[in-house]
Design brief:
- The complex is a heterodimer of chains A (282) and B (66).
- Chain A is α/β, with parallel strands linked by helices and 282 residues long.
- Chain A contains 8 helices and 10 strands.
- Chain A has one domain: Aldolase class I (TIM Barrel, Alpha-Beta Barrel).
- Chain A starts with 13 loop residues before the first strand and ends in a 25-residue tail after the last helix.
- Chain B has a single domain, classed as Roll (Ubiquitin-like (UB roll)).
- Classes of the chains: A alpha/beta (282), B mainly beta (66).
- Chains A and B meet through strand 4 and helix 2 of A and strand 5 of B.
- Strand 4 of chain A pairs antiparallel with strand 5 of chain B, so a sheet runs across the interface.
């Protein structure tokens, strides 16, 4: 048994798409009541990667503020998404526009894209065929493609085979706050994707509602968690961001430390031997 | 001439470059990306690329998202 003296063992940096990060929490920038609240929440979450969306020009909000005024682009890697795209062709266009925008900022995320090809407006579930098609096109175009997908293990494998830099299965539908609905599928995704390739990054993306959901995903062995609404729409977003940071670290350490097996019956933590009391049945 | 700008018909003078268009929109110094007929026009080509009648132009930027 190793005795760790470091105050936080097991929280080593990890690599994804050619870059190395300390934080395993990826945080979205959408749906905050104000930009300053977003800025404080990102800070409290400890994240190093933030997701953004590409939309038709409306460069200032009602207060005359722009998103980029509140994101330190020298500090965060910006991961543009293709949210709202319902075809591979549109997702590829949006990815290329995102790259052009990040080029202008000089951000290291310029070749990164969080690929979403959606199949249905109500559930925001991904279109697996369009997702794979867009992954292939973007990989061939030099992108590091981090791919949002369902928790279906075979889809996940096909996306990896198409050249994705990371596969990001959803815990539950986007923004639903239902947490990790099918732990078995997440475990199967991890087994398949990491078979003979243990460093292949798998990020649980979408569905987080509370800090314990992040811990559960990390305890299953995910490399990270991507979330947005759970912080942005919490009653106290900054406090929730703190909770998410700790939950992510706790889940990672719990995974690495190795949980005990579940047993049917109790096993006493105090020795039975030497007790002065009457023990029934003995 | 008439172009389709961010999904809406828009009257524009001729001749017009991409740079001229974003200048007219007050976006010359802004972080924005331009697509003409589904092809991204890199910033370095904004001054040389001409916009033609009937072109579909998208001007986009980064916003909050998950």
């Amino acid at each position: 048994m190793t005795v760790h003296t470091s105050p936080e063992p097991g929280l080593a940096p990890f690599a994804i798409a050619g870059r190395t990060f300390s934080s395993r929490l990826f945080v979205g920038t959408g749906k905050y009541a104000t930009y300053p609240l977003m800025q404080q929440s990102l800070e409290a979450s400890g994240c190093e990667v933030v997701t953004v969306a590409v939309r038709r020009e409306r460069l200032v909000n009602e207060r005359g503020e722009s998103l980029l005024d509140f994101i330190d682009t020298s500090r965060y890697t910006i991961l543009p998404n293709t949210a709202g795209c319902f075809s591979a062709a549109d997702a590829v266009r949006v990815a290329r526009l995102g790259r052009e925008l990040l080029d202008q900022i000089g951000n290291p995320g310029r070749d990164w894209v969080k690929l979403e090809v959606l199949g249905d407006k109500k559930t925001l579930l991904p279109d697996p065929v369009g997702t794979i098609e867009a992954t292939r096109t973007l990989v061939a175009d030099g992108f590091q493609v981090l791919v949002y997908t369902s928790d279906d293990p075979i889809s996940a494998q096909r996306i990896k085979d198409a050249g994705a830099a990371a596969v990001m299965p959803a815990g539950s539908p986007i923004g639903s706050g239902q947490g990790v609905l099918n732990r078995n599928n997440i475990v199967l995704c991890l087994e398949l994707l990491k078979h003979a390739d243990p460093r292949y990054p798998v990020i649980v993306d979408a569905g987080v509602g509370s800090a314990s959901d992040v811990s559960i995903a990390m305890e299953l062995g995910a490399d990270g968690v991507l979330l947005n609404t759970a912080i942005a729409h919490a009653r106290e977003p900054v406090m929730m961001a703190h909770a998410m940071r700790k939950a992510c670290e706790a889940g990672r350490q719990s995974y690495l430390a190795g949980r005990i097996d579940k047993k049917m019956y109790a096993t006493a933590s105090s020795p039975m031997e030497g007790t002065i009391s009457y023990i029934p049945g003995e | 001439m008439q172009i389709i700008l961010n999904g809406q018909p828009s009257e524009q003078p001729e001749p017009l470059t991409v740079h001229g268009l974003i200048e007219r929109l007050g976006l010359a110094r802004a972080i924005c990306a331009v697509e003409v007929n589904s092809q991204v026009i890199p910033r370095a080509e904004h001054e040389s690329r001409t916009v033609h009648d009937g072109d579909h132009v998208e001007v986009v930027t980064l916003v909050g998202g998950g």
